[in-house]
Amino acid sequence: MLCRNLMASMARRLQAFVRQIEALARRSTVERLAAFLVKLCEGRRPPVELELPLDKTLVAARLGMQPETLSRAFARLRRLGVSTVGHTVRIADVDALRTIAEPDEG
Asked: In the chain, where are the structural domains located?
């Protein structure tokens, strides 16, 4: 029974990693950052102000990009009302951000 539970847990983790890799491969850096921010906004009403849960270098690594690329992606999201000061991110329009994060789902 323990072995079966362990194998099931490992299978779920592997599936999660595969989904993450697929998302990295098919989405642009801006789309990946938008999706990350939308997930952080869940359950909050706009405008949203939040603290990044990780250092920007770690956020960049998690999203499969260099820190410089993360900065450029944040700059491209400014037109949608996303601004940063240190680790604080302000998002004026979560729905606009969601359209960038989920381009195939319209």
From this structure: 28-105
The fold of 28-105 is Arc Repressor Mutant, subunit A (1.10.10)
What does the block give as tokens for 23?
A: 């998302």
Say how many C-beta atoms besides its own lie within 10 A of residue 106's C-beta: 5
CB 15 within 8 A of CB 7: no
β-bridge partners, 84: 89
- pTM, full prediction: 0.75
Q: Is 48 exposed, middle or buried (0-12, 13-18, 19+ CB in 10 A)?
A: buried
Quickly count: other Cβ atoms within 10 Å of residue 36's Cβ: 18
Question: Of 91, 67, 87, 63, which Cα lies nearest the Cα of 79?
Answer: 91
* pLDDT tens-place string over residues 11-33: 999 898 787 777 666 788 999 99
Block residue for tokens 């938008």: 34
